[in-house]
Amino acid sequence: MAKTKAKVEKLDPVWARILTEAEDAVRDEPLLGGLVHYSVLHHPTIERALSYRISLKLANGEMSEQILREICDEAHASDPDLALAARADIVAVYERDPACHRFLQPLLYFKGFQAIQSYRVANWLWRQGRQDLAYMFQMRCSEVFGVDIHPAAKIGRGIMIDHAHSIVIGETAVVGDNVSMLHSVTLGGTGKEEEDRHPKIGDGVLIGAGAKVLGNIKIGNCSRIAAGSVVLEEVPPMKTVAGVPARIVGEAGCSQPSINMDQLIRGGA
Question: What sequence ranges are listed for the domain Serine acetyltransferase N-terminal (predicted)?
């Protein structure tokens, strides 16, 4: 057992840490034993645990947990990048959210993380030409988590969505790597146009609570969007924008705003 655990830790340190934390959680709170065993300890890999958790959350009378689990397993087997992105998302949440103290928490409790992993399966289905099934995943994700991400949207790795209530990401939106956003963020369009109509968010961007970014505009790498802002124009890299409509109010304040999570606007930003 010790040799097996050491091998898992070497090959997959994120999953190994989740297993250790799961064992600790059962020891500290035996009433959670069933939840933790079924969600984590019964599974040989993080891919299988993700499939179980997503299918359990999204299942309803119209689509059974078993069918959803088979779909998720197929997606993970076909595209290993899904689980690689999930690992990056777990680390991102742990490093940026002061309420997250263990890798185990996003997998079990955080709907932002769970919604992103549901989107990743929906996006895989979309890329396979299975649009109707992808839309079903989108619908259930919106109903269960309050997070509405079109399955055709393109989202990178290391994503942290804090609280994740009322998130909307449109069909042609692009979100880069290591992006952080808070609740009630909208990446939307500005009308009824059917072409490329949604924002392109660069790497390392921090989007504050309630911010609305509308239209096919570029948000430069490592920029900050203040809470409650409405962004209608392109934002250069490493800048802070605020207001309705948003205007540049200063520099980003640091090299990695999405990781530092500093949302205060000081003199010179």
Answer: 14-118
Enclosing domain of residue 159: 153-268
For 169, the 3-state DSSP assignment is strand
Predicted TM-score (pTM) of the model is 0.93
What is the number of domains present in the chain? Answer: 2
Cα 183 off chain centre by? 12
Q: Measured between alpha carbons, how far is 134 from 154 in angstroms, rounded to an integer?
A: 14
pLDDT of residue 3: 46
Helix, strand, coil % in the chain, rounded to nearest 5 = 45, 15, 40
Q: What is the largest CA-CA distance in the chain?
A: 59
Question: Taking the alpha carbons of 156, 114, 163, 215 in that order, is the dihedral positive or negative?
Answer: positive
Q: Which pLDDT value is given to residue 194?
A: 79
* Per-residue pLDDT at 1: 47
- Measured in residues, the chain has a length of 269
- What are the CA-CA distances from residue 261 to residues 107, 191, 251, 267 (Å)? 21, 32, 15, 17
| CATH number of the domain within which 225 lies | 2.160.10.10
Domain boundary (90, 120, 146) is at 146
Mean pLDDT by groups of 10 residues along the chain of 269 residues: 51 95 97 97 98 98 97 98 98 97 98 98 98 98 98 98 96 98 96 89 97 98 97 97 96 88 72
- Is residue 241 classed as helix, strand or coil in its secondary structure? strand
Strands (E), the chain: 147-149, 154-155, 160-161, 167-169, 174-175, 180-181, 186-188, 200-201, 206-207, 212-214, 218-219, 224-225, 230-231, 239-242, 247-251
